[in-house]
């Protein structure tokens, strides 16, 4: 054992410096840092961009001294203040690292994976090991034994998009298994093509101006744009916030009636000061069925719309009135018991929906639950019965909280990216397509099942998937030990893996559970080009390298050039171009594509200026063309109509997703639902207000602005807290049969009794690698369930989760999440 106890403790102390030292000392550290940063006038300013928006950074003495939003961004997010901390923090991956036991024992030693004990190696040693492992797996097993398919929120930049670099290089070596769908909208994107003919979730939506001019009612259904529009998939412009400001005025003047259907008074509701309709968690479908029942019984629904534009209403009505399936009539009285909204209120709400122009705006959390397909399908049915699909300010949207959907598209070409795949006509070094009967593509959230139940056949979206028995995993640009559910189940699964390679700049829990960790640099340490405005296509952004790569980190491009050199493919990988040649060529292609439509300047002019603004786009109404002519502009559904009943889904013969939307009880539900006697609280793990998932959690000073005793906050209703003897600022142990964590109590009336929130992305900090060890920081996925939405989408069900809590007593363990590995150097 080469690690002494002293060193181990030393490691722990640095990992939790922020929480141990306390704010006083941090303050003086911050002051010292400011002095080292010089004043406003010193240094040079550079333009760059990020998920959090475009900015100017002042570089002084070779360091980023200051960051301020670009003038074009009229509604910058506070998270701009966390960016500096992504570059400079104790959790940076500094050197290539290899897990001690894996290296010493050469038997993969899965049982100690996660103990965070690493040794430093040279770049050559690390890349040789990586390459040898790829060789061994392709030779001894085959492509089915390598999983390199997980993706996620890689930092922005069209060229450096890191997962593409990894997949292209690894793909030049051999084939591997990959995934379909995503954690964001797994259930929604699978069900909606059957119902409305496209994923809807990733489609441009009706322009905000059309909504503001025409809607009388806006229903924010599980939808929190003020929180979630702070970040974008590409560099975010924050243009939507101007419309939210106008909406706030219209709400105040009584011109538009906004209702938030949500178990929580969320950030948007507090901002708009609009009506809040509290609903019991996970019960939206029961509520919607009762709304539909009211519209049907009171003859208020749009028969003409149903007749002209929809299919299968008559197959759905028997279920609604209690003549088929469960034989229960979906009356408001029936629903009230489940959803906690009174029968009178349900009737009143139903009448309101049809009285005037009503826009339904759904968020995504409501489909990130068991049977998550149903609320979206039922939402479409409700919209069809209201009959306003395709009208300005009417109908249904599933994306207005995301990446500025609803800001009109300019329609100009955007720069492309680095190719994810091997070039056409090229074969991988190991040209082997034999997956031994295993599926080559697996539903994204089922990758842990593969390890625990290899060879199992599952049903998925009309087909069968045989879970591959993979042995090796390569991770880049995503953080599985944040994004997946049920940490203790993951621990068991990871013991079975032979080799895990992670390419990262932050020492996340995924690094802790890896064997080889390669230090990438951040986006702030490389040059790139980005789309400015993911859906609006507002323009182009130059991402100037701010500082040189820190420590021994390299760009992903360099890392994979060096990997592919090991099997003689580096020239094909790079196409003989370096970083700036790639950036220039992506710009040149984009410039060509826009010729005659928009004259883009020479590259150097653009690069110097930092931003190219295409201006605004034209307002637009989703599904207006379909409404105008449903024959010519048919939807992409099998029939071309809105499918209230889907013959295709019906024929799949699934239990948990049948021919029309239905109410299904959940495996866990609070407020009297299953499991609530033992674990009475519903844990929602919403997207963080001050992070992008796990990104920026490492930003120490910024994290200190929201942590409680150095831990992630848990938001609790004051009455619930009082009943448990918990006060604001207390440490709380949150637990269920799957796991336990420590979090810091924040009492708030915005949370209803029985509802608690811990935001996703909190860095997992297990006390040790053992199954069941307490999480010292507060990652909600320590507690969530790893079950599929249904046989249709096989999507994550993170929001189907009950927990209990108590005031923590006993010795307080230090936070182990931050500060990197424990190592001998
Ligand atoms: N309980 C619960 N779990 C959830 C959710 C939930 O609502 N509740 N939401 C789910 C959703 S919708 C999503 S999208 C996922 C998000 O899951 P992920 O996309 O996995 O989350 P991120 O934290 O963004 O992880 C990105 C990682 O890539 C690294 N990275 C970024 N840029 C680069 C780069 O250029 N090079 C390299 N090498 N690495 C880079 C970052 O440091 C970070 O660790 O989480 C899912 N998990
Ligand atoms: N600041 C910030 N913004 C982000 C992200 C981030 O990490 N940080 N991530 C981005 C990504 S990848 C995604 S996928 C989107 C996620 O977008 P969403 O999934 O829509 O966001 P959430 O914040 O999880 O939840 C939105 C609302 O749903 C409510 N809700 C949850 N369960 C239920 C329910 O059963 N019924 C009802 N009626 N309401 C419910 C919550 O209380 C919350 O107010 O956000 C994007 N935007
Ligand atoms: Mo997402």
Automatic annotation (TrEMBL):
GO biological process terms held by the UniProt record: anaerobic respiration
Cofactor info, note text: Binds 1 molybdenum-bis(molybdopterin guanine dinucleotide) (Mo-bis-MGD) cofactor per subunit.
InterPro entries recorded: Asp_de-COase-like_dom_sf (IPR009010), CT_DMSOR/BSOR/TMAOR (IPR041954), Molybdopterin_N (IPR041460), MoPterin_dinucl-bd_dom (IPR006657), Mopterin_OxRdtase (IPR006656), Mopterin_OxRdtase_prok_CS (IPR006655), Prok_Mopterin_Oxidored (IPR050612), TAT_signal (IPR006311)
SUPFAM superfamilies assigned: ADC-like (SSF50692), Formate dehydrogenase/DMSO reductase, domains 1-3 (SSF53706)
Keyword terms of this UniProt record: Metal-binding, Molybdenum, Oxidoreductase, Periplasm, Signal
Domain spans labelled Molybdopterin oxidoreductase N-terminal: 48-88
Domain Molybdopterin oxidoreductase: 92-565
Domain Molybdopterin dinucleotide-binding: 681-801
Its EC number(s): 1.7.2.3
Signal sequence annotation: 1-32
Family of this protein: Belongs to the prokaryotic molybdopterin-containing oxidoreductase family.
Protein name: Trimethylamine-N-oxide reductase
Annotated source species: Photobacterium lipolyticum
């Amino acid at each position: 054992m080469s690690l002494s106890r002293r060193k181990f403790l030393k490691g722990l102390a640095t990992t939790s410096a922020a929480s141990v030292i306390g704010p006083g000392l941090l303050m003086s550290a911050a002051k010292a840092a400011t002095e080292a940063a010089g004043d406003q006038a010193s240094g040079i300013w550079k333009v760059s961009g990020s998920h959090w928006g475009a900015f100017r950074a002042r570089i002084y003495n070779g360091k980023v001294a200051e960051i301020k939003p670009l003038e074009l961004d009229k509604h910058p997010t506070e998270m701009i203040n966390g960016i500096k901390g992504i570059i400079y923090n104790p959790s940076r991956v500094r050197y290539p690292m290899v897990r001690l036991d894996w290296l010493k024992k050469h038997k993969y030693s899965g049982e100690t994976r996660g103990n965070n004990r690493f040794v430093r190696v040279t770049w050559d040693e690390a890349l040789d090991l990586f390459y040898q492992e790829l060789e061994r797996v392709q030779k001894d097993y085959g492509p089915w034994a390598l999983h390199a398919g997980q993706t996620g929120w890689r930092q922005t930049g069209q060229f450096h998009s890191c997962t593409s670099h990894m997949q292209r290089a690894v793909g030049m070596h051999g084939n591997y298994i990959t995934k379909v769908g995503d954690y964001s909208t797994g259930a929604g994107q699978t069900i909606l093509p059957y119902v409305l003919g496209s994923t809807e979730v990733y489609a441009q939506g009706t322009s905000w101006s059309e909504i503001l001019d025409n809607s009388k009612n806006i229903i924010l259904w599980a939808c929190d744009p003020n929180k979630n529009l702070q970040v974008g998939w590409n560099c975010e412009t924050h243009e939507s916030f101007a419309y939210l400001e106008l909406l706030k005025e219209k709400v105040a003047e009584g011109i538009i009636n906004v209702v938030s259907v949500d178990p929580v008074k969320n950030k948007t509701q507090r901002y708009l000061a609009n009506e809040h309709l509290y609903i019991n968690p996970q019960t939206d479908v029961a509520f919607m069925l009762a709304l539909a029942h009211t519209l049907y019984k009171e003859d208020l629904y749009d028969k003409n719309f149903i007749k002209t534009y929809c299919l299968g209403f008559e197959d759905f009505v028997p279920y609604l009135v209690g003549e088929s399936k469960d034989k229960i009539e979906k009356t408001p009285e029936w629903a009230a018991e489940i959803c906690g909204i009174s029968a009178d209120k349900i009737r009143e709400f139903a009448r309101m929906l049809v009285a005037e122009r009503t826009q339904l705006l759904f968020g995504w959390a409501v489909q990130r639950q068991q049977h998550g397909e149903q609320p979206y399908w039922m939402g479409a049915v409700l919209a069809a019965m209201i009959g306003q699909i395709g009208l300005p300010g009417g109908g249904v949207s599933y994306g207005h909280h995301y990446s500025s959907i609803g800001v009109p598209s300019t329609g100009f070409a955007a720069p492309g990216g680095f190719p994810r795949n091997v070039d056409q006509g090229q074969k991988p070094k190991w040209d082997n397509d034999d997956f031994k009967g295993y599926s080559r593509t697996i539903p994204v959230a089922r990758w842990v099942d593969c390890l625990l139940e290899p060879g199992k056949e599952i049903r998925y979206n009309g087909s069968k998937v045989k879970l591959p028995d993979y042995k090796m995993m390569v991770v880049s640009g995503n953080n599985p030990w944040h994004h997946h559910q049920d940490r203790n189940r993951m621990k068991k699964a990871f013991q079975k893996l032979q080799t895990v390679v992670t390419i990262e700049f932050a020492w996340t829990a995924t690094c802790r559970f890896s064997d080889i960790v390669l230090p990438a640099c951040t986006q702030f340490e490389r040059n790139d080009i980005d789309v400015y405005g993911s859906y609006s296509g507002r323009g182009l952004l130059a991402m100037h390298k701010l500082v040189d790569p820190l420590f021994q980190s390299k760009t992903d491009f360099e890392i994979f050039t060096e990997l592919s050199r090991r099997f003689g493919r580096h020239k094909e990988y790079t196409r003989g171009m370096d970083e700036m040649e790639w950036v220039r060529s992506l710009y040149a292609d984009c410039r060509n594509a826009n010729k005659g439509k928009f004259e883009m300047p020479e590259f150097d002019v653009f690069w110097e200026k930092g931003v190219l603004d295409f201006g605004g786009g034209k307002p637009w109404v989703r599904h207006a063309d379909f409404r105008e002519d449903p024959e010519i502009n048919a939807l992409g559904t099998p029939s071309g109509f809105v499918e209230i009943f889907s013959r295709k889904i019906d024929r799949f013969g699934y239990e948990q997703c049948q021919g029309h939307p239905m109410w299904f009880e959940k495996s866990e539900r609070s407020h009297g639902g299953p499991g609530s006697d033992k674990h009475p609280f519903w844990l929602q793990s919403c997207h963080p207000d001050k992070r992008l998932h796990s990104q920026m959690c490492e930003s120490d000073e910024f994290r200190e602005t929201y942590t409680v005793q150095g831990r992630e906050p848990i938001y609790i209703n004051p009455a619930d807290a009082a009943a448990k003897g918990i006060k604001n600022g207390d440490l709380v142990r949150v637990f269920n049969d799957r796991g336990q964590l420590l979090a810091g109590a924040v009492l708030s009336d915005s949370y209803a009794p029985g509802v608690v929130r811990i935001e996703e992305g909190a860095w997992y900090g297990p006390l040790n690698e053992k199954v069941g060890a307490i999480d010292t920081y507060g990652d909600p996925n320590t507690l969530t369930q790893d079950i599929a939405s249904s046989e249709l989408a096989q999507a994550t069900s993170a929001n189907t989760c009950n927990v209990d809590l108590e005031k923590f007593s006993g010795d307080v363990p230090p936070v182990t999440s931050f500060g990197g590995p424990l190592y001998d150097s």
